[in-house]
Amino acid sequence: MSLPSHRQPPAPADAGPPVGRVDPALADRLTDAVLLAGLPVAFGDHGPGVRIRPARPVDARDQCAGMAALDWLPSPRLTGAAAVAEPGDAAGPAREVVEMAMTNALAEFLPALGLETSRDRTGRELRVDGRAVTGGGLTVPPGVLVARQVGPTPVELGLPADVVNTVRRSATLAGLPVATHLGATGITLAACARTGGTDDRNGATDLGWNPARRLADLADSTLPEAAQAATARAAVDGAMRHALGTALRACGTRLRWLHAHQRLRVYVEPTPAARR
């Protein structure tokens, strides 16, 4: 007598990864794109950085198997303070603002790196579907890095030490890297460019963002990929400067976005930071 087989039929070749897993090729693409932008990648639930995890279905109709969801994890210090915050404490709202600002930045610049993003039906979860990835993305050929002189540090630029320390404290809480010198990856600090108006009054430093050297050097090269890299660099720069204005302000730095001059400026007399 033959018994019925309990073996499951083989999955179709295009079935993709099961629910609860991110397509490995998509995870690699995302990791490289985040690092090219100059941001850290979180490991597991430990920040700071971008966490790449499986998308969570909203309901049974939400077909999100294999999709990746992206979160921003701030520093463990801010995360821990928010977890035990009392009502009215600024740490909880600060964490939410930082996470939202950085997730919005990812949504802005990832398409320039060939990774289209979307939101789930609730509008909260930022997703990337491997089936919607455009082309092969930006490929950085080997040997693209060029020798560069080390730029001046904030101290060598003559920036006020208390302002530099304020920016570094806020950036550390938010989980963002600060460039050790002009040309390095992360938040850059430079002397205020004169605007000729009241915006110059009490201005302490202008902030910017440098992506990874691989992206910057490719954009400045004569290689065929230079134009695509330059577009990606501009997208990262715009998205990150907008995010910095929101995230650093939430963590205690007094700054303002000067729309007419496209500058993010830090002012003296920083506002009291959230209790942490």
Key features?
276 residues, alpha+beta, four-stranded antiparallel beta sheet, 6 helices, globular
Characterization of this structure:
Helix content is 32%, strand content 14%. α2 packs across α3 and α5 (213-219) crosses α6 (226-250). It is globular. It has helices at 24-37, 76-83, 91-109, 161-174, 213-219, 226-250, and strands at 49-54, 68-73, 117-119, 126-128, 186-190, 203-210, 255-258, 263-267.
- Spell the H/E element sequence: HEEHHEEHEEHHEE
Q: Roughly what percent helix?
A: 25-40%
Unreliable runs: 1-18, 270-276
The total count of strands amounts to 8
Shape: globular
Structural category: alpha+beta
Number of helices: 6
Distance between the termini: 72 Å
Strand content: 5-15%
Q: For the report, how would you describe the main beta sheet? A: 4 strands, antiparallel
> Order of strands in the sheet with the most strands?
1-2-4-3
Radius of gyration from CA coordinates:
21 Å
Average pLDDT: 85
How are the SSEs ordered, and which strands pair?
Layout: H1 24-37, E1 49-54, E2 68-73, H2 76-83, H3 91-109, E3 117-119, E4 126-128, H4 161-174, E5 186-190, E6 203-210, H5 213-219, H6 226-250, E7 255-258, E8 263-267
Antiparallel strand pairs: 1-2, 2-4, 3-4, 5-6, 6-8, 7-8
Helix pairs in contact: 2-3, 3-6, 4-6, 5-6
